[in-house]
Structure formats: C-alpha cells, structure tokens
Amino acid sequence: MAARNEHHASAVARYFEAWNAAGPEEVTRAVAAAWAPDGGYSDPLAEVRGHDAIASVIGGAHEQFPGFSFRLTGAVDGHHDTARFAWELVSDADGSAPVAGFDVITLDADGRIKDVLGFLDRVPAAA
C-alpha cells in the first residue's frame, strides 16, 4: 500500500537528498534538513546518532562507491510516524546496482527523521 500521507514521501525524498548530496557541505545541509538533531541511523555496518555522525556514514559510502547514486525502488509505504521503502545504489556510468536494501524510518512531530533502521538485501562479494 502506498504512503497515504505526503508526510512520509517528503521525509523519504529528503533522506535521498542527503544520501545523494555532492560534497561534505551539501551532505551536512541535507542531513540537517532530513534528520532531527538527535536522529539516528543504523544498518548492519553502522550505528550512529547525531548529524555529524550520520554525515560521516554518508561520506564513507560516497568514498566506497564514487560515481553511484541511491535510488528509490517502488513506493513508500507508511502509517502513523513510520515508513518503509526499498532502494538501490546505482552506478551513474552503467546503471549497475551492486547494493540494494530497504529502510524503515520513524519521524518526529515535525516530519524529520528520528531513526533509520537499514537492511541490506544485496551487497558485492568481498574481493
């Protein structure tokens, strides 16, 4: 079921803006727009809280996968203060998507992200 509330879709759009921001200053601005000040992010590789730590995780992904962008796959599904959605990490050069997963976010009363629980469904094989 698609998100019934634009609140969820807007929060997810800001989330992708943060992950796809170019350069540290843009990442910092986008994280501040998407997350509550004490917001958190957790996936199998990281568990952090606060804008600086979240921006650092995003910067690390950019370093590991230069020339890639995060893309929403499918619809955002949400209710109350929670939404879930699937995504892929796509090569800007050839369209390959070596990483994919889904995230569950909870929002505060202002529509900013309180917490992200990320799950990895597809990851590249270790070299």
From TrEMBL:
Residues 12-115 form the SnoaL-like domain. Signal peptide: none annotated. It comes from the Bacteria. InterPro entries: NTF2-like_dom_sf (IPR032710), SnoaL-like (IPR037401). This is Polyketide cyclase. It comes from Streptomyces mangrovisoli.
